[in-house]
Amino acid sequence: MYVRNSSSIMKRILMSRPDFLQAAPINEIAKKWSHTRLDTAKMQEEHRLLVDAYRKNGVKVEFLEPAAGRPNSVFSRDFGGCIHEGYILGKFREPIRFAEREAYKTRMAELGIPLVAEVTRGLFEGGDFTFLDDTTIAVGMAARSNPAGVDEIREQLAPLGYHVAGVQVDEKYLHFDLCFNLVDCNLAVAFLDALPEDFLAELARREIETIPVPANMVFQHGCNLQSIGNRRVVSLKQNIHVNEELSRRGYDVIEVDITEILKAGGGPHCMTFPLARE
């Protein structure tokens, strides 16, 4: 009914505008910009371009209204993850993001999407969440999700028939989507040096091809793109290598010119919470 994988046709998403966003020093990217005032008008225009790109491709966009008390809610991906039956509510590590949890929980109730699992003891953020197939979920464990959070998700989703696997990566990568993202059921973009051997072996077993992202593009969000299905991908305009590789494989790359929002540590994937896919 809601989301069954990471690459079928996107129908509905949840976003939040960057009206109060600044580069809080809570990740490796934002630390470089934390003493600089980000241009709010420019970020609002960049976000509008992303929203327009989704709408032009048939995606309905819902919003959580921004608020000064939760400046990072523009990165809507992170409050949890959506599955076929409803959604998983995560638990943030950083205090600057604590207020987002209840705000997004309330908004999901307003949208009529049921809460089917909740992390309360461990930590889990949605930037670490990806499907490998309709019943297999990989959860990265970098800086913001931990084994206790993965265990809670595994326990609560097992009765629904899901297999949940934790993937350990270095905490400097913040979230799993900084170094891995599924484009299609058999194609991903990845910074291979960051991924453990057992996960790479699992990708090979599943015959999931990877487009390698160069090391110099990792912290410029080279992996942080969003599949919207039917061989369409939303990607950063600056992501030249990956965009060319996708185009060469017959994908329609929808480029968005976003640079200012990136300084706070998140890209298109981070700003997009899937609510419904075909």
What is the topology?
Blueprint: E1 10-15, H1 28-31, H2 40-56, E2 60-63, E3 80-82, E4 87-89, H3 98-110, E5 115-118, E6 129-133, E7 136-141, H4 147-157, E8 163-168, E9 180-184, E10 187-190, H5 197-205, E11 209-212, H6 215-218, E12 226-229, E13 232-236, H7 240-248, E14 252-256, E15 273-277
Parallel strand pairs: 1-2, 4-5, 7-8, 10-11, 13-14
Antiparallel strand pairs: 1-15, 3-4, 6-7, 9-10, 12-13
Poorly predicted residue ranges: none
Q: Reading side by side through the largest sheet, how are the strands ordered?
A: 2-1-15
Broad structural category: alpha/beta
Mean pLDDT: 97
- The total count of helices amounts to 7
Report the portion of residues in β strands.
15-25%
Q: Helix content range of the residues, please?
A: 10-25%
Shape: globular
Q: What does the largest sheet look like?
A: 3 strands, mixed
**What's the multimeric state?**
single chain
